[in-house]
Amino acid sequence: MQAGGFSISVPKANLEITALAPDVLRLRIEVGTQRTAARLKLSTAAGVFSLNRRTGGWTLHDAGGLEVFRCTALSLDKGRPQITLQLMEGESIFGLGESAGPLNKRGLIREFWNADVLGQASCVHPNLRNLYVSIPFALSLRDGRAAGLFWDNPTRQIWDIGCTEPDEFRLRAATCVSDLQLLSFVSDNTGGGALKPACADGSLYLFLGPTPAAVVARFTELTGRIPLPPRWALGYHQSRYSYASRAELERIAREFRRRKIPCDALHLDIHHMDGHRVFTFGTSFPRPREMLAKLAKQGFKAVAIVDPGVKDDPKFGVLKRGTAHRAFVKAPGGRRDFTGKVWPGKSRFPDFLNPRAQRWWAEEQAAFQRLGLAGIWNDMNEPALFDTPNKTLPDDCVHGRGAAAHSTVHNLYGSAMAAASRQGALLAAPDTRPFVLTRAGYAGVQRHAAVWTGDNSSSWEHLAESIPMLLNLSLSGVAFCGADVGGFLDHCTGELLTRWTQLAAFTPFFRNHANVDSRRQEPWSFGPRVEARCRDAITLRYQMLPYLECLFAEAHRTGTPVMRPLLWHHPNDPAAVACDDQFLLGESLLVAPIVRPGATARSVYLPHGLWFDFWSGGLFEGGQHIVAETVAEHIPVFMRAGAVFPTTAPGQFLTGKRDATVNLHVWPHGRSELTWQEDDGESLGYESGAVCARSIEFADRGTIQELTLGAASRGFVNRVKTWRIVVRSASRNCRLWVNGKRTRANFDPKLGVFMFEVPNSLAPITMRWQ
Ligand code: MIG
Prior knowledge:
Largest sheet: 9 strands, parallel
Bound molecules: ligand MIG
Helix content: 10-25%
Number of strands: 50
Shape: globular
Structural class: alpha+beta
Strand content: 25-35%
Radius of gyration: 26 Å
Strand order of the largest sheet: 29-28-26-23-19-18-17-31-30
């Protein structure tokens, strides 16, 4: 369909409405009262938008005549746009990026204003209105029907989602930003769809859905999708604030290898620096290049923290060069650089919203990374300051050579820093996938970095809270996300670490991290039993790496999250929609974490269909709650009947040679599809098609079961030499045909599996057994 639209004035505002696609409408709200020829209706193949010119209210109906959104008022109050939407009976609101509290945000007030929570609240509380990341995106779900809304306005927003008035969803933003032109970094979009990328210009987007997947596909088409991470970044990361010397870091590395706990990445927190000077190593880390080379030999990648504050030390090279590049945020008035206190003491702050400053920063970082650092960890980039009343840059600091006040672009600062950081990584190693981790961000941050959820605590409550928080982040485009495993603040216990590690092995980003005055939290810190349980959980993570790689590839291609709420696949099932203490990894693996001390059982909701207990193989009818008993060794996990689950032999790290055999575990009594993807795990070749992708389909037709691998794309010479098919829950040997030829198989009555191996080929492979 062709783009259509109209402009009209409503109380104190001009409104321009455009259909960007049949299921995506854009509203621009601007100050002014210019009368234009009014068309009051806009129809597309997917819906009808109609406007009440007098009130500014509007409705959006889908093609079937169902009212999807009703706006009862839209106006400007002293330049502040305000929108009131009606919340419908049974409507739930998800998304909103990083947010404390339950999965469904209906009934809450939330703000979008990036903040270092620890700087302002003693800990993350379910009622906190804002955290480090701002993503003003809502996924609405009612009677199984999804729709979405994205207000691409980076200024402070407040959403009252049926708190003050149970049926009203009131959205307010601090200003219209339609004239903001400096945001070059937001437009280097990798979404790759037909829509023009979103650019924080104040537009309000409406998505007609009707599935959660359709909404998120459009939202991520606008804001971008995750690039493929380097494979090692999908492994286990170990961190602490801080590993304070070279000797300590090397000891940690040795412990992992000695104890055979798989680990790919070690993080360097702020103690590696020389007096907190960014991009330096202090004397406790002598000969960093040699140290990093040695770690690399043992299969470890190092990730170094990089905060935005540059020490205001006239002898410090980074400060001198930054000043020469006029790269710092200006104080109110715009003449002098602003200075404020953070870790290095008095510091200046790079103006990441200025492309020139971004480029300069990227060069500084590249020089640092060339020492052998594989990843960069952006912290404090809300930005967080110690000594200003608002704990960030003052509202009227100046960005982009006078183009914007800090308060307008505040929420963009973290994403802009992450964008510069990705650029820097690419300067240092142009054909290597960057790994950037960020604490702060705005909608679209997923293009530049993975997000971790900041300073949580070593508490059971925060373990439980990490589930809805990561699920909503995932729905909001940030497919590569994770929480500090074991909890950051306070003191962890062996049981908490065990349960947290067992949960987080199934989350996209998997890093154990602890605060400077917390007790040690490495997997071996609580004795051999806890160590063994953590080792098992981490090892399982490494076994399921091929499954994770397929899911990350899907997230990159379509925006579909790796970690999904049950509602993603079961939007018509109210109990699945309400469930926020379980999650799906991909479509097939259902994880029901243990979030209480001493618990050996929990209630688990299994959506409609048949489910296997992952550990015992027991079969359950879905559409009901069951009591899942469990042991200390693992948490309840279920596999959907009909699932195909690719695994591999686990190594101690993911760089280098990989096993040539991939297991395809197949669970009967259902059907499924999975897109297999394999690539080099390292370079950017995947962007130009250097992948081996193929469909994997399984169907159990009662007497006959069929597994088909589609023709493989030939962009990448794949490593898989052999597929080992492991049919689970089997009671006898079967007659097997591979590509129509009778082939031998084995049956293991003890394990209840039926097994055979098939040499790989790029041509389709059809396997049937009965
Ligand atoms: O003011 O770098 O969230 O992960 O260990 C605290 C020290 C600064 C906050 C981060 C945390 C990190 C810590 N940082």
